Amino acid sequence: MDIGFVRGIGTILVFTAFTCVTLWAYSGKRAKAFDEAAKLPFADEPKTAASRSDTP
Hints:
Cbb3-typ_cyt_oxidase_comp
């Protein structure tokens, strides 16, 4: 077993992990959780934007 074989096994393991994470992230079951997470930066903003536009 030489270094090329070990590197080949490492490449296959990393590629498999990448493929699994990609499939997990784009699965339909995760869409709702990711949509909620995408809205988190806006959670701190005030609910009424009309009160700001009334002031000069």
